[in-house]
Amino acid sequence: MLDLPVEPAWHAAIVFNLQLLFKHATFVDTFALADETEPGPVFRA
Amino acid sequence: MSAGEIAAAFAAGRISATRIVEASLSRIRARDPLINAFTTITEERGRLRAQALDEARTRGEALPPLAGVPFAVKNLFDIAGLPTVAGSLINRDAPPATRDATLIELLEAAGAILLGALNMGEYAYDFTGENAHDGAARNPHDLARMTGGSSSGSAGAVAAGLVPFTLGSDTNGSIRVPSSLCGLFGLKPTYGRLSRARTFPFCASFDHVGPLARSARDLAITYDAMQGRDAADPVCAERDAEPVTPLLDRGLEGLRIAVAGGYFKCAAAEPVYALDRVAAALHANRDIEIPEAERARSAAFIITATEAASLHMPRLRTRAKDFDPATRDRLIAGAMLPAALVTNAQKFRRWYQQEVRKIFSEVDAILAPATPCPAPLIGQQTFRLGDADLPVRANLGIYTQPISFIGLPVVVVPVPLSPLPIGVQIIAAPWREDVALRIAHALETQGVAAAQRPPVEDH
Predict the structure, then answer these.
(1) What three-state secondary structure class fits B68?
(2) In this prediction, does ipTM exceed 0.95?
């Protein structure tokens, strides 16, 4: 779907980085936020 | 000489702009082969500009505040006539920029003289200053060591005395980390304070631009020349310029200063020494907790990876092999992270911003380490922090990321140490760069903060 050309030699480093990202993302995800919390980016029309 | 001293000498007729530029070019020729800071020297442009300033002075015209002061910029700033390489191989094939970045235009309008573009980490995704295409920038205090990144050449060029100030960018710490490792003053202003128009982006949510220099006053005078609205950067604030230079000598009176506790309590000797020294000089006896700073760093980490992946997707599809593998593999991983997790990080960002703002009702500034160690060796993979060996590339910014995550203004002050300097962050409330710069100037006046002259200046 992403159409990224990933060579087999790159797999290990990409998996390592993806695991690191998931570790950080999970840490953030475990923090309870109110349903109405707005995301950070500000769009100004 | 400092930027302020050069401008004063030129205005008083004690030296010509041409002589200033030739002296700077001569230093670049002698020292840059050692430190690898410059990727392009705009020699002819600088000479023409100097000549025009000399002629203006001869005609008795009013001189702008930075008249005759040489500077250089990280090579992600557009310079008319040059491709904006942003530390990459790929962008060398881009068409030349047709117009200078807004900040270059403002500095030249203030009389400063552009002398070139500077080395940087590839696409700014870097804390080390190592670059697979241009080679590592080398720390003027010890040529075997990193400058830090990603504004590597910006720090090296000032630390080696090639130019009195440079411009860098800071997304997660890329002005503050190299300022710390090279022993310089660095300013990361409030998010949206200075225009990023016609700079190559990294992660738009966090991208800031700002100066590096050898004194707080030079930061202030260059920063004042760059403030103002700019419709060309949608993030640039709708605020009038708020000059800080006239406020520098107000001292510390009335300022409430605390030390960041918890996550920011560093386990390494050098950052602790530097922070204690600065805190003692400022009589900052109170610790304050920045809540959830570690989680803020995690959120910054994933937003950075995913926004940068989004930016580079077309290049990853067509020229993946032309990236530094260390950059490419992180970008590809960033492209695969589920959007819901990224949105959670953005929601956390809002919560964190509101919580940290409350702190500034109690204090005016917070002190924190800038880096967890002095400059590592070039090529060094890990460093020791407490009981853990941490990867250098990902962790030099552990104390800077939670701050830029919510766009707070920060001045890094250098604390002289032997053999290598290290920096301390002075963090202020949004739009209060004046507070951080006043404190930095006071520390400099007391002799606690200073940009030491490195051995490379003997060349």
Answers:
(1) coil
(2) no
- Distance, in Å, from the CA atom of B16 to the CA atom of B31, rounded to the nearest integer, reads 23
**Cross-chain CB nearest to B341 (options A2, A10, A25):** A25
Residue B143 is encoded by which pair of tokens? Answer: 């040529």
Q: Which residue, among B39, B40, B123, B77, has the nearest Cα to B319 in the 3D structure?
A: B123
User: β-pairing, B185-188 with B208-213?
Assistant: antiparallel
Is A4 in Cβ contact with B335 (below 8 Å)? Answer: yes
CB pairs under 8 A between A and B: 96
pLDDT of amino acid A43: 58
Residue B385's SS3 state is strand
Whether the CB-CB separation of B79 and B198 falls below 8 Å is answered with no
* Ranges under pLDDT 70 in chain B: none
Give the pLDDT of residue B135. 98
Nearest residue, CB atoms, B329 vs list A5, A14, A29: A14
Q: Which pLDDT score is estimated for A41?
A: 66
Tell me the longest C-alpha to C-alpha distance in chain B: 65
**Radius of gyration of the CA atoms of chain A, in A:** 16
Q: What per-residue confidence (pLDDT) applies to A20?
A: 95
Measured between CB atoms, which of B325, B332, B341 is closest to A29?
A: B341
pLDDT given at position A39:
83
Tell me, what's the pLDDT at A45? 53
Residue A40 touches partner B, C-beta closer than 8 Å: yes
Closest by alpha carbon to B134, among B35, B33, B200, B39?
A: B39
> Does the beta-carbon distance from A4 to B317 stay under 8 Å?
yes
Among chain A residues, the shortest Cα distance to B330 is held by: A17
**pTM of the full structure:** 0.97
Record the tokens describing residue B303, joined without a space: 């937003």
Residue of chain A whose Cα is closest to the Cα of B344: A29
